[in-house]
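Batch manifest line 736
LIGAND: DGJ
JOB: complex structure
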Amino acid sequence: MIKTVLSKTGEPIFHLRAGDASYVFSSFHGFLIHLYMGPAVADDDLEYLMVRVGHDSVVPRPADTSEYWFSCDIAPFEYPANQTGDYRPSAISVAHADGSTATALRYVSHEIVSGKPAADKYPAVYADENEADTLIITAKDPADGVTFRLYYTAMRDLPAVCRRVIIENTSDNAIDLERAYSASVDFAAVGEPMELLHLWGTWGRERTMERTPLLHGSLTVDSRRGASSHHHNPFAALVGKSTTETAGMAVGLSLIYSGNFDITCDTDPFGCTRLMAGINPTDFRWHLDPGESFVTPEAVFSISGEGLGKMSRTFHRLYRKNLCRGEWRDTIRPVLVNNWEATYFKFDDEKLLAIAKDAADAGIEMLVMDDGWFGQRNDDKSSLGDWFVNEEKIRGGLGKLVEGINALGLKFGIWFEPEMISPVSKLYEAHPEWCIHVEGRDKSIARNQYVLDMTREDVRDYLFEVMSGVLSSANIAYVKWDFNRNLTEAASATLAADRQGEMFHRYVLGLYDLLDRITTAFPKLLLEGCSSGGGRYDPAMLYYSPQYWTSDDTDAMERLNIQLGTSFVYPASSMSCHVSASPNHQTGRQTSFVTRGNVAMAGAFGYELDLTKLTDEEKELMSKQVDAYHRYYNVINQGDLYRLIMPADCVNGKIGHCAAWMYVSEDKSEALATFVVIRTSIHPVYFLKLQGLDPDAVYADDNGNEYCGSTLMNAGLNLTKNWKDGDSLVMHFVKK
Ligand code: DGJ
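JOB STATUS: finished
ARTIFACT:
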């Protein structure tokens, strides 16, 4: 619901009600002023919140307002402009024909529509007229007439607000955008110190949660790598120092974008904090001739007054139901076995069929043939781009192999790394100019490969044709879409010299275009995203691939941090998690088959080890795990997640070092809790307090023990026993 009332200046105040949250802002002498974001408030007129005192005498005041207290230097803006009295980081900066970059925004009009109009064909939340309302503000720069359309979508049943901006060059001259963020909000200082929570990482250690106190100045998490990256996820949350999983304020900001992004959190001397997200202005410049428009990616706020858990559950529901699309959004995903850690590049049709045979016996539903099936790809030194089956390995061709796999009752999936080209490849011999490079400059190389220029239509056409050829040549149900290096020397032969600043963003749009063409041509295909593990695990990729390879680190103990970190934004259904070999290939750690299964059952479940080498006992455990996963599928993938114990919370505690989480079905009739002991301690005492249950209901576990919901949540389960390192337990509850 979106309400408007008039303020004392006769201008509109907008009150967006999204689920149980309020988002309020107003026009004040044409400036768009942020008033409030948080748990719902009943009043619509919050203009009393606008007055700020405490600015000093050096601050300029706008020429067109007479209020003595109003200064752009401290006013809380909705979309802060550039060089016009606000010295904090700006959300928009337009370079004009005369080279100047002063930019201003004044409210002109607004419109409210039911649902959510699509701005373009690129990734964004979608919602119909029963799910959301959208406010579209039209603002203009009074000096040159450039138009800014600010889109705000308030979800009706979720405390989530989506924002994006369309900038239209309605001036008489060409302009260049130097900054064009998707959203910005200025939070007033509140009583308690605030922190920024974000997800940093590297290869094998993606999305590690970190909370850091704000400083007077800027904190930035960003990417300049051409991909959203392992290093920072396009997400941050502003939280109170005392905010926990279950209490306190948490405003999450997630950017639906796969390229260079920036999230900046800037706190001024008066304690006002600006949180903004958008395309990274570094190496960005976008030219707009008169009449042309630019659409920013979408940013999503999840607003919680009840801690981090609720903030995450809002993201989960929104992304699961209103961002993921297509056949596989709701369809039960197959349990798969992937041959990468089983064989690496050393496999042939016989080996794959042998793995598939054991997989079929255990009830596994799909075999995925990973890297190494094409060209002369026997290691990572060649053949990317040559997407033709290597018949020395796959004897008799792909069709025959897939028929053999299908005959065992399994679906078949295949690996591609479409955006890459090996210098040792037929494609490179034919088209050396297709890789991203700067003429006359050395090309940096990573994993022996270059990146194809996805801004080029001829490159995308080639990839579409060659991939379509493979995908139509056999009964292929799934594609793992990998991306194993970042961009360097980013320039494109298709862009004029003064438009090279568009390269990074155009690369991402080119990628989306190809993903769109493939998913449209093959609507039944299940796409799994991957980027050396979770290096491009972002909301935009979920728009095409509802599941993503979470990390190349498959060690169950390491995965606890990675998966729980990922869960701050991303739903379980998007998290691809596999049981791999012990000792683990990345860490050398030994973990029991049971615990590896319990930890991998946190999303899209599968195996990634040589099944032919398992003992009979392990094979039996595997069948049991597959069966359990089928039984628990709905509560894991469609339920609400509660993080009970984060590994970092108890490193030195007397309960040893452990982790626990649980899923509860939306109607609270079923729950599944997992408890993992990373490192035990002497005489440990473990009372595990559950969350999210119906306090008045009675729940029975799989052994017939009965508990009241209130007891499970307030007193907890007594898990006191002499656990060993790496032990784990899964507990299933059904409401009586
Ligand atoms: C990186 C991925 O993360 C792995 O799972 C595997 O597919 C390799 N690439 C193959 O080269």
